[in-house]
Amino acid sequence: MFKLNEIxxxxxxxxxxxxxxxxxxxxxxxxxxxxxxxxxxxxxQVAPQAYIPAPQAMxxxxxxxxxxxxxxPAAAAPQEAAEVNSSLHKxxxxxxxxxxxxxxxxxxxxxxxxxxxxxxxxxxxxxxMKLMNELEAEVKGEIVEVLVENxxxxxxxxxxxxxxxx
Length: 166
What we know:
By secondary structure, this protein is mostly beta strands. The chain has one helix spanning 4-16, and strands spanning 21-26, 29-34, 44-47, 50-53, 66-70, 89-92, 97-100, 116-117, 122-128, 131-136, 141-146, 153-154, 159-165. The strands form 3 sheets. Strands 1-2-5-3-4 form a 5-stranded mixed sheet, with helices on one face.
């Protein structure tokens, strides 16, 4: 179960970034935060096996986030097309945060598809709670695909890159 102060911090994080949607699962509880259109705001609480929409607020000063809390265990996500090839290594996010492909907006990306990497090659930065965490490739090979957009909020365990191991 998520604590109220944790939910408030996550809403604040989403509100302060260019991320439009955040979804987190913890101990069978799923939290989804989405930025709605400024003209509309919706809050929903989802109980197991039932969807209960809350009244919609019409005033622009109303709640600026849409949150969905699901107490039931999340269903298995459908296989993505990128996951079809099981011979590829997935570099996954070790934490929830904002994904950055380069050390600064003006700098080139750490890696791009076709680049060769080693276990110690920095492939991206994950910003979490104002701390910049460099993520290394963990495997020697060639970057096949970047699965996340620059500036996108990522979840714990979310695949970020596909690497063809050597």
